[in-house]
Amino acid sequence: MKCYSTVLPEVKIIEPAVYEDSRGFFLETWNSAQYVQAGITANFVQDNLSLSAKGVLRGLHYQQPNPQGKLVYVLQGEVFDVAVDIRYGSPTFGQWVGVLLSALNRRQLYIPEGFAHGFCAVSDTVLFAYKCTAFYSPASEKGVCWNDPGLNITWPVSEPILSDKDKQYRCLSEIAREDLIKYE
């Protein structure tokens, strides 16, 4: 397994070891000892799976209180995956990183607590998996608008398919401090 820091040092790209032969391939999607060795000590408590059509954009989501760290990867298709630092007081507050994740490149992205997360399906269908460090809490669910001009994220679509909830989120600059994560 290889682990790389991104421009946001806490957000990591993971390339699992893949063993291929004429039958197909094998890889470990999670091995706590290897991830701890790579500096990822998260305690995951919930796994999620979503199916999306091309052009669907999910995000930018976070929870406050009860923030979630996530380990995400694609089982089928390809996404443009984004993490945004929403830790108030952080030296990288408001900065984002975007990574192409696909069933072919088999990369994973680790997004720690304190970052909003979203992805856009760029293939016809996407089967997307993620491990979370906190249970889903509807009362804690929050988000940042996907097209926030202050973030200037270069999404691969100009008119994505959004949920009604995702259409309602505000720009990061309009979100009250108590609704963000405090940088420690």
UniProtKB/TrEMBL annotation:
Homodimer. It comes from uncultured Sporomusa sp. SUPFAM superfamilies: RmlC-like cupins (SSF51182). The active site is at H61 (proton acceptor), Y130 (proton donor). The lineage of its organism: Bacteria, Bacillati, Bacillota, Negativicutes, Selenomonadales. It is an enzyme of class 5 (isomerase). Its EC number is 5.1.3.13. Coiled coil: none annotated. This is dTDP-4-dehydrorhamnose 3,5-epimerase. GO terms for cellular component: cytosol. Pfam families: dTDP_sugar_isom (PF00908). The record marks Y136 as: Participates in a stacking interaction with the thymidine ring of dTDP-4-oxo-6-deoxyglucose. Catalyzes the epimerization of the C3' and C5'positions of dTDP-6-deoxy-D-xylo-4-hexulose, forming dTDP-6-deoxy-L-lyxo-4-hexulose. The gene is rmlC. NCBIfam families: rmlC.
